[in-house]
Design a protein that fits this description.
Layout (H helix, E strand, L loop, with lengths): L10 E4 L2 E4 L7 H7 L5 E7 L8 E7 L17 H14 L2 E7 L1 H7 L1 H14 L7 E5 L11 E5 L2 H4 L1 H21 L8 H4 L5 H10 L10 H11 L22
Parallel strand pairs: 3-6, 6-7
Antiparallel strand pairs: 1-2, 3-4, 4-5
Helix pairs in contact: 2-6, 3-4, 8-9
Length: 250
């Protein structure tokens, strides 16, 4: 028998209502744009809820005349399958790119502008300039960039382009955190990727933050105050982010 509906990864509950997402992300959304001759990129982010490390946005342009099977939202794949698909995408996609915003930049400009900046860096890094960008979620963090942007709720489960972007972003960021782990022993970054796991929380409480922690995050700042006392200086904030033409709140 299959899993109960409440345990299926493609079933979401919002406001007490059940919503079933597609088992396999398709290209129906892309097809509508491809038929108009548009170059379409999918965009997705990873690391927004982490306490340490960068925010990473992936951008992928898939070819309109070929299909890559077994693409899924990165969250429903095990690490080995994600890595396999990321390797295949490198040779299959017309273009792939990632944009990072460091923990220091996040502290200076805040998460909303960090999302904008990482997305700008990712899409600007594509070897092929897209006409249309499909964005996972209900917020257009590329407004004003110069592309036509379509927001897709549950996009990483509905759009192959967004699913591909989620895989590229996840594998890239996981690798960054894994490589950083030996320099910051005890925080277990190779396992938790900077998210607040029990071991991460315990080490943070005991030793305070590392230099790749997001010092403006409430729990991180609280740990810094407890461990460092008056020696802790909160990170400065900027009114406007660097390299981002769109002001906060636009």
């Amino acid at each position: 028998m299959g899993l109960p509906v409440s345990q299926r990864k493609n079933v979401q509950y919002r406001a007490g209502r059940r919503r079933r997402l597609p088992d396999v992300p398709g290209v129906g959304i892309e097809r509508g744009w491809w038929d108009q001759g548009a170059v379409v990129a999918g965009v997705d982010e990873v690391g927004r809820g982490a306490w340490a490390g960068p925010l990473t946005v992936g951008a992928v342009v898939l070819p309109p005349d070929r299909r890559m099977y077994k693409l899924r939202d990165s969250k429903v794949l095990d690490p080995a399958r994600r890595r396999e698909l990321a390797g295949r995408l490198a040779g299959f996609a017309l273009a792939t790119a990632v944009g990072h915003v460091t923990n220091d930049e996040i502290d200076r400009i805040g998460m909303a502008d960090a999302m904008r900046l990482a997305a700008h860096r990712a899409v600007s890094g594509l070897a092929v300039r897209p006409d249309v960008v499909l964005i996972d979620g209900n917020w257009d963090f590329l407004a004003g960039y110069g592309t036509t942007n379509q927001r897709v709720i549950g996009g990483d489960a509905r759009s192959a382009s967004i699913a591909a972007a989620s895989i590229v972003a996840k594998v890239t960021r996981d690798d960054l955190m894994g490589r950083a782990c030996p320099s910051f022993p005890g925080y277990d970054f190779s396992s938790n990727k900077g998210y607040p796991s029990p071991s991460h929380k315990a080490h943070l409480a005991a030793r305070g933050p590392s230099r790749i922690h997001r010092a403006s995050w409430g729990p991180v700042a609280a740990a810094a105050r407890r461990v460092l006392g008056d020696a802790w200086v909160p990170p400065p904030r900027l009114v406007h982010p660097p390299e981002d033409p769109e002001p906060p709140g636009a």
